[in-house]
Amino acid sequence: MKADAALGRLLPAEGEPRTFPDGAHFRIEIPSVEGPQVLETVIASAAEEGVVVNRVSQGSGAMLMREAELREMAALGSEHGIEVSLFVGPRESYGISALPRTEDGVGHGGQSRGLNGLRYAVEDVARAAECGIRSFLIADLGLLALVNEMQRVGELPASVVWKVSVMLAPSNPLALRELERVGASTVNVPSDVSLETLRELRAATTLPIDLYVEAPDALGGVVRGDELGDLVRAGAPLYAKFGLRNSRMIYPSGLHLVEEACAIAREKVHRAAAALEWVDRLSPGLTQSAPGAEGLGIPQPETAELLG
Predict the structure, then answer these.
(1) Which residue in 157, 160, 173 sits closest to 206, CA to CA?
(2) Are 277 and 42 within 8 A, CB to CB?
(3) Predicted confidence band at 3 (pLDDT cuts at 50, 70, 90)?
(4) Which among 28, 93, 40, 103 has a CA at the least distance from the CA of 63?
(5) 6-20, 156-170, 230-244 — which is least confidently predicted?
(6) Sign (positive/negative) of CA torsion 247, 251, 254, 256?
(7) How far apart are CA 241 and CA 265, in angstroms?
(8) Pairing mode, if any, of strands 55-58 and 135-138?
(9) Which whole-number Å values give the CA distances from 89 to 11, 58, 84, 121, 158, in the listed order?
(10) Is the per-residue pLDDT at 41 higher than 60?
């Protein structure tokens, strides 16, 4: 095909299997951890289930949390060696525009509208970083470019990592390469990706890939815990994310939903424990990172006063 020669020039040849800096093949992420109480639930459930949770992410947005809550999240993450990744806001789905709330326009929901949207988003990052947070979820290409430029000149901490949201998930290797070029630290790919396409995506970059092993209904509702070993072999280094099918979307979350958010989080950890048993059964040579491993955006609460 005519495209093959061009693709050969743009994409690297498939290399040796890749790992995280610590030599591990995968890490476990629990998404939609909406505040300190939910994070405490994840930590307790992980201890009960015998699961190492390497990263948690939050979808409602750092903007909806008080600074005391941000500091509490940072302190918990730091104490337990867990990356705490917070979604940047505001985003179009929260704004006054109608398009993101239509069936055809929902894909715009994670974007930052206009220069004012970018200004508020950067302030959201700065505020949370001052509270010790060192990982942020981004769903806008322009915002990703902007925060990387600010980080380059020292206006944001060098230790911050930028996690590209599934709302901006690339479906082909060239799109993934572009996100890497703009400054992504890790990239979420579509939850329904085939093993073949996952291998293609992996060959295009050394960046860690984030993948919903189980996805909420809004992201397709796939349940692939038994495949975790195959997914890791195809995509390592891989963040294995455990959403929860047949659970209610809770964004934006808050005190009115905290009990439900905690119950959902407990079951996500349970699903991760079951998937790890499948790894032990079918892929015993694969290894997971320990808490606090190199490359994680572990919070740094001790820097809060310095940055503030």
Answers:
(1) 173
(2) no
(3) confident
(4) 93
(5) 6-20
(6) negative
(7) 12
(8) unpaired
(9) 33, 11, 16, 5, 21
(10) yes
- Residue 302's pLDDT is 81
Q: What is the SS3 assignment for the chain? A: CHHHHHHHHHCCCCCCCCCCCCCCCEEEEECCCCCHHHHHHHHHHHHHHCCCCCEEEECCCHHHCCHHHHHHHHHHHHHHCCEEEEECCCCHHHCCCCHHHCCCCHHHCCCCCHHHHHHHHHHHHHHHHHCCCCEEEECCHHHHHHHHHHHHCCCCCCCCEEEECHHHCCCCHHHHHHHHHHCCCEEECCCCCCHHHHHHHHHCCCCCEEEEEECCHHHCCCECHHHHHHHHHHHCCEEEEECCCCCCCCCCCCHHHHHHHHHHHHHHHHHHHHHHHHHHHHCCCCCECCCCCCCCCCCCHHHHHHHC
Q: Note every long-range contact of 124-130, with CB atoms under 8 Å and residues 24 or more positions apart, other chains counting.
A: 124/61, 124/62, 124/63, 124/88, 124/89, 124/90, 125/62, 125/88, 125/156, 125/160, 126/156, 127/62, 127/67, 127/70, 128/62, 128/70, 128/86, 129/156, 129/157, 129/160, 129/307, 130/304, 130/307, 130/308
Total residues belonging to the chain: 308
